[in-house]
Amino acid sequence: MELTSYTSDKIKVISFWAMIMVVFIHSYNLVLKFNSSSLVSTNQYNTFVQGFISGGLARISVPIFFLISGFLFFYNTSLTSELYIQKLNKRIKTLLIPYLIWSFWGLLFFWGLQSMPYSSQFFRNQPIRQLSGYEIILKLFVNPLPYQLWFMQNLIFLVLLTPIIQLTINKLSYLILVPILSLYFLNKNLYIITGEALLFFTLGSFLAIKKVVVNRLWIKRTSIILSIIWILILIIRVLVIKEPENGPFIKVANLIGIVAVWGLYDLFLQNVEFSSKWYFELFSFSFFIYAFHEPVMTIIKKMLFYILGFSEINVLLIYFLSPFLTILISLFFAMLFKKYQLRFYNLITGNR
Questions:
Q1: Each residue of 201-229: pLDDT tens digit?
Q2: How far out from the chain centre does Cα 271 lie?
Q3: What distances in angstroms separate CA 131 from CA 111, 233, 252, one per listed residue?
Q4: C-beta atoms surrounding 350 within 10 Å
Q5: Rounded to whole angstroms, what are the CA distances from 228 to 110, 217, 224, 254?
Q6: Predicted model pTM
Q7: Residue 267 clears pLDDT 80, i.e. is over it
Q8: Which residues contact 76 (CB under 8 A, 6 or more apart)?
């Protein structure tokens, strides 16, 4: 099974779109710590818009990344002891080192913000300078201040478990879906690995190991119907069910939404040669946006509220404006580093 240029471009485009969705998840501002208090918006329009996008539509982004990660790890290969060691050595450069760099960056960044009189009022967490050596180590390795790094944490442990994942898939085949789907719907974790991470990484691994054809015609043909079902579930969840973000409705929606998005690409973008477009290079900055966007967006949100005030219309305006500005700033620094500090850029992005 070869990864064709079409599938490769498709993964890159969908990954970039999914990263935009991750930024929108973190753009949620109905509850925001500000000057030791919380901004709470109860406006029904704001609740619906943010609940539908951040709490629904965008929630397929993380499963997509785990799915792709599992697929790419096993595609066109059967894991042997030698190959496993090779892949672990590669993941030290692509996962572990970037994780530690960005974790340290977050610690240093928060320390700087807490040290300046004008910005310290917006960050009332325990001052970094008051942390003990042990607490700093925990912040760096276990509980990083850039909270989005939890994804890399899970991915590191999943990579370590790949021999067990491959063995289980080969032995159980489709039966492996029973326990991992159960963990997912019951909101159970496997120690530090979330049920969501385990399910979708394993599904991606399954597709690669079993050499499942991922660009199937039936997915393309039914993508519109699946999309309608997906959207209806998300609307019902926000307006009627009003369940939490880890409820069964959003989990079912995620499973349907991933298939829908994958098919919609084939339906509407199959004939688009993205690699020939001037903006195609932007899609390669997905990882930088992921690592850089927090705590930058938190600062932007709080600054915008400080400047514009706390009216309901501003809550909605800032909800859309803060991810837009964050992505622009992220792309600016990504292109700057890549152009003038290529070795440093490759180091912090795992050579992506």
A1: 999 999 999 998 888 888 999 999 999 99
A2: 27
A3: 11, 45, 42
A4: 20
A5: 42, 18, 6, 13
A6: 0.94
A7: yes
A8: 1, 2, 3, 208
Identify the burial level of 326 via C-beta atoms within 10 angstroms of its C-beta, where 0-12 means exposed, 13-18 middle and 19 or more buried: buried
What is the chain's alpha carbon radius of gyration, rounded to the nearest angstrom? 21
Q: How far apart are CA 84 and CA 39, in angstroms?
A: 48
To the nearest 10 degrees (0 to 180), the angle between helices 248-269 and 61-74 is 70
Q: Which two tokens stand for residue 87?
A: 């892949």
d(CA 234, CA 229): 9
Please, which residues bridge with residue 34 across strands?
37
> How many C-beta atoms surround the C-beta of residue 296 within 10 A?
17
Contact predicate 205/162, CB 8 Å: yes
SS (H, E, C) the chain: CCCCHHHHHHHHHHHHHHHHHHHHHCCCCCEEEECCEEEECCCHHHHHHHHHHCCCHHHHHHHHHHHHHHHHHHCCCCCCHHHHHHHHHHHHHHHHHHHHHHHHHHHHHHHHHHHCHHHHCCCCCCCHHHCCHHHHHHHHHCCCCCHHHHHHHHHHHHHHCHHHHHHHHHHHHHHHHHHHHHHHHCCCCECCECHHHHHHHHHHHHHHHCCCCCCCHHHHHHHHHHHHHHHHHHHHHHHHHCCCCCCHHHHHHHHHHHHHHHHHHHHHHCCCCHHHCCCHHHHHHHHHHHHHHHHHHHHHHHHHHHHHCCCHHHHHHHHHHHHHHHHHHHHHHHHHHHHHCHHHHHHHHCCC
Question: Cα-flanking dihedrals φ and ψ of residue 278, to 5°?
Answer: -65, -30
Contact 107, 139 (CB under 8 A): yes
| Tokens describing residue 280 | 């195609």
Interhelix angle 312-340/286-308, rounded to 10 degrees, is 140
pLDDT on residue 241: 81
